[in-house]
Amino acid sequence: MVRQTKEHMTMKIFMWLIFIVIALFLAFWLYNISQQYIGPGGIEQGTSDTLSCSGYTYKISDIKYEDQNLTFTIENTIGDSIKSMEIISDMEKDAIDLGPVSTGRKRQIIVKEFRIKDSFVVYPRGCLRYNSREFISDGQEWVKR
Asked: Which end of the chain offers a freer environment for a tag, N or C, measured as fewer CB atoms within 10 Å?
């Protein structure tokens, strides 16, 4: 009977140690994930960025790329006025001051001497992570990814 109790107690201690190790592993893993996605500004900064970028609802259409000149039309469908956009291609990056494009308005954008190999991304300034549109070339037209 004494032997049975020692084995029982040893098993309980072993199980508690496994539980503590798993709990510590999960705690460190969640901490690393939170730092990676929320960033150094904390949760308030990540939340405010998400909310401010979600205020932009827009469409990109009529995309043409000839002689290193990118042309497209932006339409602000709902939300805040879009004042500036950033464009990143697989070869370079550029910023465009639009002046305000208010709700329901369209504006044709021309980016001169902008090199693109296969794809580019358009987004309101500071919203790459939360509100971007990516386009790839299928050889004949630009398709939203």
From this structure: N
